[in-house]
Amino acid sequence: MSLLKRVAIAATVSLSLAWAPALAETHVTAAIGIDVTSTDPHKISGGGEYLFFSNVFEGLYGHNLDGSLAPQLATSYTVSDDGLVYTFKLREGVTFHNGEAFGADDVRYSWQRSNKPEIKNPRASIVTKKISDVVVVDPLTVEIHLPKPNASMIENLGEFFMIVPKDYIEKVGDDYFSKHPVGTGPYKFVSRSINENIELAAFKEHWGRVPGVDTLTLRIVPDPQTRIAMLQTGEADIILNVPPHQAKEVGADPDIDVVVNPSFQNYFININMLPEGSPFRDQRVRQALNYAVDKDTLIKRVMFGFATQSTAPCNRGVIGCDIDRKPYPYDPEKAKALLKEAGFDFSKTYKTFGLAPGRAPQSKEVAEATMFYLQQVGIKTSLEFLEYGAWLARLRSKDPEFALFWQNWTDYNADPMGRLPRGITKGGTYSWSDLPEADAMIATADSITDPDKRRDHLRKLFTMLYDNPPWIILWTTDEVHAKRSNIDWQPRANVSWPVFWKLSKH
Fold first, then answer.
1. Average pLDDT across the chain, whole number
2. Residue 127 carries which DSSP code?
3. For 426-435, what is each residue's pLDDT tens digit?
4. Rounded to an integer, what distance in angstroms lies between the CA atom of residue 14 and that of residue 20?
5. What DSSP assignment string belongs to 295-334?
6. How far apart are CA 331 and CA 327, in angstroms?
């Protein structure tokens, strides 16, 4: 790593929402691995879509470039003594990209729209479904009423309750809005060519985060070698997800900087516990899978050091993830013994699937390597790879034909409740788990408003998920990107998608 021209962002980030570089007539092209599946913020299907939404839309509160909580379309809030009413003062003078003024009516409308059955918002359950009413007090004040306390609500407002323009959507309709989105974010939507590019323009009337470029093109280029070639020739100014094994080589070019960004992105092999009679319902089998894989070696040889082994199904920076456990060690003999004790059927071939390159670095290589290790303890598997959209569809389908699959999970912020209900609770959108005791603890986590008691509760939950693992727990990755040296860019830490608020070209 010392040979890399590494741009470390974590602790030294200077965070100022008032950052506003000198404007210039400049254009930047960023080559990204996947296209989005939606440009409507109430129809988010997967984490990849945030590369669009986090640049074009905003919530009442969101996160700074270091991942810390910060006001966005609100400036402050107070909470009633019973924890059931949050009163937000809204930011004055904010306009949507079409020139319409932002106000309290838009907040109430966004809540209503997010929950409309015909919108089919796959993430409404995280915040908006937990709200009983949004009351307009005056044009710049709203009250959010809750039927019961929700300790994670403020942290999740930015990612799961994005504000859309009431008057515009009522005029043009939902379908038109989905293809011609209008938000309040630092960039405004210009055009989109599916699987080719998304054109954005800096929103120079933004209340505090005006980009230092005029226009930004997001070019969809799934092949990482092509992205690297585009950067080397100057066809692209920024590329995302440099393969870890090529970071050193890419950074050796004097005109290119490698950008390493801390991430809350977790890699793991999900285990299908749902079919009755499946051997993977046995806790001993799932522990055996964790002992069977040599994570240390994979981090060195597949991730080239751009990862940190996890002790639980979460990033250590997430609330409650600092459990008193060490990661599962590599112990194939213990794995074999546990499998034998559990009466595992070694005669079958277990179907698995992975994610094709583009969304996450080394997704293909990691899936292949883990299946190799499983074969070393006698577990036979077949493996196929799917493009991002097809992979998401199968993930949601919970096809009982598949026993295992590669998956990544990004904790959107330091509060785990944006993910746990959907990723672990039985019946959750992305859950293939069946762990009633964990489900009960997840169900009560948001009702605990005392921060210390809530952290203890979450520690017990993650400890339980270590002992009775729903996944083969692998690691948390660093994001590895690259840019031309004439580009100043600071992505946001602790997520797995890029933001381009702080971007300029010289």
1. 92
2. T
3. 999 889 999 9
4. 13
5. HHHHHHHTSTT-EEE-SBSB-TTSTT---S-PPPP--HHH
6. 12
